[in-house]
Amino acid sequence: MTDTEDLALRLRRHVVRMCSRGGSSHVGSGLSIADIIAVLYGKVLRIDPVRPDWPERDRFILSKGHAGACVYAALAERGFFDVAELDAHYRNGSKLSGHVSHKGVPGVELSTGSLGHGLGIGAGMALNLNRFGGGQRIFVLLSDGECDEGSVWEAAMFAGHHRLANLCAIIDYNKLQSLGRVSDTVNLEPFGAKWRAFGWHAVRVDGHDHDALGAAFAERADNRPTCIVADTVKGRGVSFMENEVLWHYRAPRGEEYVAAMRELGVDVMAAGDA
Amino acid sequence: MREAFVRALSELAADDERIVLVNGDLGFGVLNGFIDQFPSQYVNAGVAEQNMTALACGMALTGARAYTYSIGNFPTLRCLEQLRNDVCYHHCNVTVVAVGGGFSYGQLGVSHFATEDLAVMRSLPGMTVVAPSDPWQAYELTRQLHARGGPAYLRIDKGSAGVPAGEVEIGKARQVSDGADAVIFSTGAILSEALKAARALAGGGISLRVIDVHTLKPLDTDAICAAAADCGHVLTLEEHVVVGGIGSAVAEACAEAGVALKSFRRIGLGDSFPDVVGDQAYLRASYGLDAASVAASVRQAVAN
After folding, report:
1. Residues B261 and B211 reside in one and the same domain
2. Which domain holds residue B182?
3. Which ipTM was obtained for this model?
4. Mutating which of B20, B22, B61 best tests the A interface, going by the most A Cβ atoms within 10 A?
5. Low-confidence ranges of chain A (pLDDT < 50)
6. Model pLDDT for residues B70-80, shown as the tens digit of each residue
7. Does A131 touch chain B (CB under 8 A)?
8. Do B58 and A55 touch (CB under 8 A)?
9. Number of structural domains, chain A?
């Protein structure tokens, strides 16, 4: 297992545990992006946990803010704050809200939760950092259902026009949105072609294949923004959560929690963490 | 008034390369000088106000001092959630500039009447809200907003009140005409109607104090409550609905401070959309916001 695959496994365990203990929704969303987040935070992003405000850092925006548990877990694993603080997720008095928030949480660049906000802000960051010749890259992770929002396409058209090569969008394309299948709701296909038509370099990869993700992040067009359409499975890593809309909402409790953690290689009964 | 804003912004931009103007594809003939002089500090977002606001926020989060620019409700209501979640929650250095407060765009119709903007902007946490009465105020307040930083809303009227230049400071109400029988608090260029009414009333022996509340937030509650207590009869005037604007702000301030009033009247738009076609002066008269209507309200208040 590579370092990032090991990190992804730890992120999945955190996500299931956080959603179980806090009683929060969106466990399936966190599992869906765990590999993307692990490759970004484990290998790609130039960030420094000692200096979260380092001006030269790359920026990561989780535009699908409901999967915040996975980003909190990645920041804790990278040392931005103590892993033990993840226990406070979703609790009264906590700083770790269900939708990702920057207030009092080092390393979070942008608070989100309402879909369709992140890409335009990422484009603004890319544009402004370009003015001063910085080499920073801006990564924005969106959900597939989020691409129903018109503001996503306002930003896509702008970034394509201005050839913001330091901007990279990643779509967590797990094919499920709030009430059912994306293809039955508002079909996004031909999806890559849409981004290309907007002036982007678009690639399609297996969003759980770390080598493929790493290559896609490294493959940067020199005069266009990049969109990585990542095919993913909602709930990935826990068999009974995979491809089930139910786990957009339901928090794993009791035996469900025990079974989910067992699939992720942890015997919570033996560890006294059930 | 918009030329005064552009002049102030140009002077600031010459000294501060962090300044960026993010335009919503409007300002024909007005912004050309700025665009020519500061090409690297200007971007046209196109007809896309949500993205305009998001861009400004992203630029501010990476060190810029961003100004969004459009007309009427486009830079406020169209992108309200971007202002709330992105600009205000992150306390970004973004100033929203809306040209055409109230009925400035008279004959263009309801889509172009900014008549709920003050209420909505005032409700956003951390947002400074400014509505100058004259070009010299727009110039001064633009400079002060830049020095102040944080999220701000600058409402630019097309008209002007015609008040001579003087001292103006964010958060400090200005008395522009003395009087003791009643006081009227006005915001924006419609101040001219209050001043006209004061002159007309003076002939009939009623002295109306006129106070220009160019800053709705932070509100100068001390000055407002003192003038209200002094005069007793209190009126407010705004080219805006009476809900949530200066009328509401003054009522809240007086009620919370326990100021005993003899009477209180909000002059503004009621709970319906204007549906008459006409220029700004015509619409003010049609909806009871002109000097004659103000004078009538004051007479009625003082008589009872």
Report:
1. yes
2. 174-303
3. 0.96
4. B61
5. none
6. 999 999 999 99
7. yes
8. no
9. 1
